[in-house]
Amino acid sequence: MITVIAEIKVKPGRREAVLAAIEALRPNVLAEDGCGEYTLLTDYKAQVPWRKTAPDSIFMLEQWKSIRHLEQHQQTAHMDAHRTNIRDDVMDVTFHILERRTGA
Length: 104
Prior knowledge:
Strands 2-3-1-4 form a 4-stranded antiparallel β-sheet. The protein has helices spanning about 15-30, 65-75, 75-85; strands spanning about 1-10, 35-40, 55-65, 90-100. By secondary structure, it is α+β, with helices and mostly antiparallel strands.
């Protein structure tokens, strides 16, 4: 199982539109073979001094059975359509592909 954390940096004022697009996409992704989780996360307004804020970002927390499943996900027609749909609203996307360490 691999975990993906993606940060989607959107243009100011466009976060709600991109969130709506991801919510519409979510059922298709969750139905894909190998998808265990596809969760949207946004900035929490905590009043703590060590917090880094990201008010124009959306974070995706994803679980995939394997890198092959993740690669197949990226090549689906609904992901191609989604990327086209939000292209003008997104400034950058950063992906972190992580694995669980045991015994460390």
